[in-house]
Design a protein that fits this description.
The chain is of the alpha/beta class and 490 residues long. It is 38% helix and 13% strand.
């Protein structure tokens, strides 16, 4: 395939710097691709075509002047609609913010704009990042490019689908309990959740503040490394952002050397739960053997408190959401119900009409868990479980460099197939523990089951993004899963 939209970021960057293509040409190719397939996929809530072409022209001007440029200069990127963009609508997939235009950029946007990226638009998502299928967007469902009757995953489904469909060379999402890795897995793209505090959350509209983290989607580990490099690092406006120096994530990615000799890889025995589809198990078991063939030392490890992860998460995350979403009162910003003179009725109707059913469900769960008489029984106990899960990982990383598991228990499921909220929550059973512990993780294309993508999850210790990216890159050098394109699209 020779179309410009099929290039990797690394390939396109080389061509741009050699002046063999222009950023305007590259951007037009992606805008044409969006026009060709967006009506089928529905990945974007907003397409910023005029802005994109202006940014592309500026990138070409900088290339022509020989300016010192970043690896992302002139590269077309999509942004999840939960990241604040100054003067550009940021909806969070909700009627509450459908007309909201932030007065400032998120830190990640400031850094991306400084790097010279081309922003193609904002991507669809589950409302306020609450969901695993992008069916909970207030506007429309996003479709999986591999099978248009199936979900792309969530909550960052729009970003994953945009990259998988060739509508963007890379994208950014947010991961609270798996919302980057799970859609990355279902859409056959790389989805990276950095260590908590590695990327600033300033300007990321909050779901659960102790769990949320911004991260990239890409078609390869090398591209993911570039996308992470551009946004990682300290930020004085985010007290939870680490002051720790940022590693060079691309330095250890040497495609000529795929050896993993000396790398210790653990396979958590608790991550092979009942209900995991046989095709997923088969593909991931084969992936693990491939890592062994590359020289890695592979053995089992136990993370005994993993089984409590989903229960703990669905106390902690809704509790934090209940506190964060209380700011939407119809007074300061967003939707406001005005057909009454009664303040309390206005507040009630604002939230009743502005929030969707999944958001209301989680607010109710969180408020209940924090209420008098239940705080100790639920929230406090969940935080104790969180500490135990973190301790399990600490002990595991004393023995291993990387932990490997399926990213999801199933391949992409059909839109509307899962109506039981608990069954939907179980989609994140393999991803949630990493958020509770604050460690980094990545889902990479790991094969197929009945023609649908299977994701291989690599988990690393805190600030070990360079380690998991090295393993991901080595795996990609000896497989071609990440090079496969969905057949459901032209």
């Amino acid at each position: 395939m020779s179309e410009l939209y099929t290039l990797s970021i690394t390939e396109a960057g080389d061509l741009l710097r050699r002046r063999e293509i222009s950023s305007v040409e590259l951007t037009r190719a992606h805008l044409e691709r969006i026009r060709a397939v967006e009506d089928k996929v529905k990945a974007f809530t907003l397409i910023t075509d005029e802005l994109a072409l202006q940014q592309a022209e500026e990138a070409d001007r900088r290339f022509s002047q020989g300016d010192t440029l970043s690896p992302l200069t002139g590269i077309p990127i999509a942004i999840k609609d939960v990241i604040s963009t100054k003067g550009i609508t940021t909806t969070c997939g909700s009627n509450m913010l459908k007309d909201f235009k932030p007065p400032f950029d998120a830190t990640v946007m400031e850094r991306l704009n400084a790097a010279g990226i081309v922003m193609l638009g904002k991507t669809n998502m589950d409302e306020f990042a609450m969901g695993s299928s992008t069916e909970h967007s207030a506007f429309f469902e996003t479709h999986n490019p591999w099978d248009l009757e199936r979900t792309p995953g969530g909550s960052s489904g729009g970003s994953a689908a945009a990259v998988a469909a060739g509508m963007a060379m890379g994208a950014y999402g947010s991961d609270t309990g798996g919302s980057i890795r799970q859609p990355g897995s279902l859409c056959n793209v790389v989805g990276l959740k950095p260590t908590y505090g590695r990327v600033s959350r300033f300007g990321l509209v909050a779901f659960a503040s102790s769990l949320d983290q911004i991260g990239p989607f890409a078609r390869s580990a090398r591209d993911a490394a570039l996308l992470l490099q551009a946004v990682a690092g300290p930020d004085p406006r985010d007290a939870t952002c680490s002051p720790r120096a940022v590693a060079d994530y691309s330095e250890g990615l040497n495609g000529t050397n795929t050896s993993l000799k000396g790398m210790r890889i653990g396979v958590p025995e608790e991550y092979w739960v009942e209900g995991t589809q046989p095709g997923v198990v088969k593909a991931v078991r084969a992936d693990i053997e491939r890592l062994r063939e590359l020289g890695a030392e592979v053995s089992e490890v136990s993370l005994p408190h993993t089984k409590y992860g989903v229960a703990a998460y669905y106390i902690i995350a809704p509790a934090e959401a209940s506190a964060n979403l209380s700011r939407y009162d119809g007074v300061k910003y967003g939707y406001s119900y005005r057909d009454t003179d009664d303040m309390w009725e206005a507040l009630e109707k604002t939230r009743q009409n502005g929030f969707g059913p999944e958001v209301k469900r989680r607010i109710m769960l969180g408020t209940y868990a924090l209420s008098s008489g239940y705080y100790d029984a639920y929230y406090k106990q969940a935080e104790k479980v969180r500490a135990l899960i973190t301790r399990d990982f600490d002990r595991a990383f004393e023995q291993f460099d990387v932990l490997v598991s399926p990213a999801t228990p199933t391949v992409a499921f059909k839109l509307g197939e899962i109506s039981d909220p608990y069954q939907m929550y179980l989609q994140d059973v393999f991803t949630i523990p990493a958020n509770l512990a604050g460690i980094c993780g990545v889902s990479i294309p790991g094969g197929f089951s009945d023609g649908l993508p299977v994701g291989l999850q690599l988990l690393g210790n805190i600030f070990a993004e360079d380690v998991i990216l090295r393993v991901a890159d080595a795996f990609e050098q000896v497989t071609d899963y990440h090079k496969q394109w969905p057949q459901a699209l032209p």
